[in-house]
Write a structure and sequence with these properties.
GO molecular function, one term: DNA binding
Number of strands: 0
Strand content: under 5%
Order of helices and strands: HHHHHHHHHHH
Low-confidence stretches: none
DNA-binding region: 34-53
Radius of gyration: 20 Å
Number of domains: 2
Shape: globular
Mean pLDDT: 94
Keywords: DNA-binding
Helix content: over 70%
InterPro entries: Homeodomain-like_sf, HTH-type_Tx_Regulator, HTH_TetR, TetR_C_34
Pfam family, one: TetR_N
CATH superfamily of the largest domain: Tetracycline Repressor, domain 2
CATH topology of the largest domain: Tetracycline Repressor, domain 2
CATH architecture of the largest domain: Orthogonal Bundle
Length: 209
Amino acid sequence: MRRARSDTQKENRRLQILDSALELWHTTPYTDITMQMVAKSSDLAKGTLYLYFQSKEELFLEILKTKLQDWFTELQVAFQPPFTPQQMVQVLSDSLQNRDDMLRLLSMLSGVLEAGVTVEAGLNFKMWLNTELSKLGTLLEAALPVHNGVQVLMHLYGTIMGLYQTSNIPQALQEALQTNPELQCLLVDFHRELKVAALALVRGHLQPA
């Protein structure tokens, strides 16, 4: 493939790499993916790939960033007053439908992705995340009587990830639990439990009228 020279060509090439890596991840476990595989699926030389991303972790961190940006944009449109806690929780649950890629990547964020990138790349991601959460937090404070919108969002993030990882168990084990009445309490319906836990959390943050 010819070398990208203009800024537009370079951005298109970057997006192509992200799309190719994501498609590869849909069929190949993350641990088995190599930069050579990504380069081949992108029709690039391996050296060219490293001009865009220094590591597999940095590449997938960028994929996560694009997924988060789409999610944040949806929430920014939805977080408009007047807003009740029940409405907010429903919006949150609905917004996570069909976002398995994002949730899977978020579950890898601390232990895999951030652990494998440079401090500079990690800080750049955190600064971007802080900016986006501040925007959402401000909207949340206007829509609900909460004092610290970013803190609410961080608590919701912890709730989302805890429930997602608890509910995301191997299919064979899930089927085994379903046939054992004593263990069925360990089966977690992600969206149902998220609504319950998130509503309790948001109500706990409400300022007195």
